[in-house]
Each structure stands twice: as C-alpha cells, then as structure tokens.
Amino acid sequence: MLKINNLNKSFHSELGTEKKVFKGLDFQLNHGDFVSIIGSNGAGKSTLLNIIMGNTSPDSGKLYIENKEFTNLASYKRNTFISKVYQNPTLGTAPSMTIFENLSMADNKGKKFNLTLGLNKKKKEIYKNILTELGLGLEKQLDTEVGLLSGGQRQCLALIMATLNKPKILLLDEHTAALDPQTSKLIMEKTKKIVEANNIPTLMITHNLSDAIKYGNRLIMLHEGKIILDFKDSEKQDLTPEKLLRIFQTKNTTIKDDELFSL
Fold first, then answer.
1. Phi/psi at 217 (5° precision)
2. Is the terminal CB of the chain with fewer CB neighbours within 10 Å at N or C?
3. What digits encode the pLDDT tens for the residues 200-247?
4. Residue 40 belongs to a domain with what CATH number?
C-alpha cells in the first residue's frame, strides 16, 4: 500500500545548526493496517505525516502508493487519495459553513463542481443516516454552522468528512488530544468503527499509550527519526503502558517518563 524507502530529512536553524530528523528511514503500511505512532517530542512523528501529505519535502528518498511513486506529487493531488484529521478541528472543517455544506464539500473532494452543483440535496438523507450513527444529534443540525458546534461534534464531523470517500490512506494527527477524556473515548471508538468497516490503512499519532495499545493492529515507536519498536497483532495485544515504557527505557536511559507520553 504505502511504502517509504530510504527517507532522509534535515532542518536548519537560523544559527546554521542542522537537525537530522530522518536518516535512511524505511517503512511500509499494508492493507488493513491501523498503526499507532508514538515517540517523544522531536522524534519525527508530525514530520513523517507532513512528508506523506506533501506539506514538507524530503531531502531524499522515495514514497510509493500501490507501487506507484508519488514523492514529487503536488499536495493538492495527494488530497484526492490521502485524508488527514488534525488535532484542531478548524483545520479540517469550514466553521462558517453549515454541516451540510461541509459534507458536500468533502463528498466532492477531487471533483470539478461549483457550489450549486456541489450541494446535492438528494444526498441529505444519506448524510443524515451517517450522522445518526454517531449518536451526537448532528443529523438534526445539517443547516447549522459548524463553528457553533462543540469541539467533540466538530472533530466527529472532521472524521466523517475525511473518510466519506474512503481514502487510500488516513492520517490522524493527535486528533483526540484537545478533547476531554469522555469525548476522546467517543471519537476513538468512532475512529475504530469507521477504519475497520472501510478497511482504510491508517497512521495515527498519539501521546496516549493506552489508546496506542488498545486501537489498531500495529504500534511503532519513533525515536530520533528511527523506528525502534514495531509491534504487530498478538505482540501488541500483550502490551501494557507500563511494559511499553520499560521496553523503551531499556533502549534509551536519558529520557524521563514524563517527557514521553500520557498513560
């Protein structure tokens, strides 16, 4: 599905110092993979997603989707087959537009349409059915501006919009970090249901070790731009947050627990 070969990326500060984020990184995301990505600050998690999205260019290396290279493909073209849900829901929704308008915009992603053609009223019933499954009452607010919704409602809407047309890859960038625990759990359960029902290959950045272990079939740990742990299926199911921290500490003795993740 997604393959990254020999990825290299460095950033230079105003003082001229160089920070190497990735040095020869290899990674493969397979069909059916729901991968949690954990790691300390500066490990390269967000940079990896930004490179996949095309918002950041690698220094060298190649990216493939279904064996077709897309390393130099423009970001707007990647948006036709890659979707992303951000920590801030305003980055994935249009606050001044209604729920119906937002869903219509997402539904027509990658298609040529004007606003009139994009607002297909015949789709309203379909959208209502999708929103009803969330259990948040959004199906009754299709004509409500998104900016008036709660943070949890907006993030649920952003998730629906990102997966409406079943992207080839879904990227989740700490998409529950700004929510309260109860709402975060709701969003994670909805994420699990949508990803598994549609078999969408997914990469999810999280600082919550419990979520990283509970959700998905695979967990990778990034440190200093390298994948130092890669647990799959039964290996992942046997983990606990405490065990994961101990494994990490055997490899890295210079970082304290509170600099890493939340439990």
1. -105, 0
2. C
3. 999 999 999 999 999 999 999 998 889 999 999 999 989 999 998 888
4. 3.40.50.300
